[in-house]
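User: Teach me something about this protein's shape.
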Amino acid sequence: MAKKFTIGTDPEFFLRRKDGKFISAIPHISGTKEAPKPLASGGSIQHDNVAVEFATVPATDGKDFVNKIKATFRDVKKEIPAGCTLEAIPSANFELDELDHEEAQRFGCDPDFDAWEIKENEAPKCEDATLRTCGGHVHVGKADGDGNDFLVDPYGKIAVVRVMDVIHGVISVILDNSKAAIVRRKLYGKAGSHRPVVKEAGGYYDGVEYRVLSNFWFRSPQLVMLIHSLTTDALRVVREMDYEGLIADIDGTRVCNIINEGIVKDACKVLEDFIRPLLSKDSLYYLEECLANVENYNFKREWELEV
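Assistant: First, the predicted structure itself:
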């Protein structure tokens, strides 16, 4: 019997006009980091730098997660300006006229942390002033009486993030290997990136925010189901297995290099040699579906966002 946990997210997306130009969300989305705008679904919306960011209500299983994201997308669709669509891509370049705002120059205002070196990450610095990135963070929360007490322990949070790097992080390198993804990884989403306190729509709760992934996994509900199932597996590994021995066998430095450098060939080898034996039947099913179809998923059609 799988132990219960909650899962949520606060993904970021770019706004693009019909003529193809990326535009800043700042003039169009009224919510801010300090005061997100509540949505009818229970989630919230805000601008984060030039991107649109929303937060979902925590879900209790994979289908619930998909449904809560879908409900939030319906609300978000009503908030974006006419003639624009959301784009689920990890990074993009903006024209300078879209960056002429104080908030468009604000980066990394809330620090995150490195679960491998146990230190605060430095704020990213980029020589390209026009580049912006989007994340797709996973919020993992403790449910009452579920046996996942390690989610509220500082060392337990570290363990969860390291195992999620082994599973989610390595698999993401295979599924999310576009040029835009590689560019993002040079700035954001380094191995071990996390926050030990989760801020969700409606407040804070016990758990950990895994910050390695881009928004690639929002291209389809199938990818969302995969992320939920992989999270179930990661918690089981921490709860029931010698995860430290597992990481030692793979080599934590190797895992970090795969994620930070986007080394697809080595990610595939680690997947076959170490990760597949850890995965549930559900995870293996969704993984095969996503490996076969990730390039063909139509983000707007999958979430009924077409205008």
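Now, about its shape. The first helix runs from residue 62 to 79. The longest strand covers residues 12-17. If you'd like, I can walk through any region in more detail.
User: That's plenty for now, thanks!
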